[in-house]
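Response to reviewer comment R2.3. The reviewers asked that we include at least one raw input/output pair. We reproduce the pair for DNA-directed RNA polymerase subunit beta here without editing.
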Amino acid sequence: MAEEFHKPTKFPSSVFEAFQGGADPAETSRVAHETSQALLARVRADPDADVVERLIAYTDENGIDAIAELWARAPARSLPGALWRIYLLRLLIRQDPVSASYYFQRGVTLSTTIDPVVAGAEAPTGPDEIMVLADEILRGIFEGDFAIALDRAAAYCRVAGIGCASVADDLDVTEPSRSSELTTRALRYSTLAAELTSCGRLWRTGSLD
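Raw output as returned:
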């Protein structure tokens, strides 16, 4: 992410639509991997509840500047890349929980897979429930089964993507620009889901670094 963020950070949907991961120079990559590995190892070795809660709420108080600087340019299928995507999803949900819950709930009604169950949101899923889900997924990164947290995030992305695509179809004639925006968002969700699923597989084999 090349843009500068300032507190309190608002992460416009247009930035999400344009978001793509990528590799940075060697030094940035080294810092990203070392910081993510050190943070995760320390917290998971002794998951103090207060520390975990501060990490979950970090972007609420400090914006996403520091996290973006450290991890946003890491390869998608890496530990810092996975952490960045989880923090990004939580921020996007909390900035607009009404829309997030609407797209997710629409996706739930259309999904033919077990993704709604894997995501684990309380049903019916409103704004409060979707924010709880975002916190639960991030909490699982630090004190639960890391791979399951990634699987839940990936499932959320797939369901939300289905919802966005469905709403895009509804608006295709009446609001073509909004329809195009939601189609792009659905594709981004699909990409994020694939990346997070891959990270989960790598974690299970001890290959996510």
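Residues 1-9 have pLDDT under 50 and may be disordered. The chain has one domain: 14-204. Further pairs are available on request from the corresponding author.
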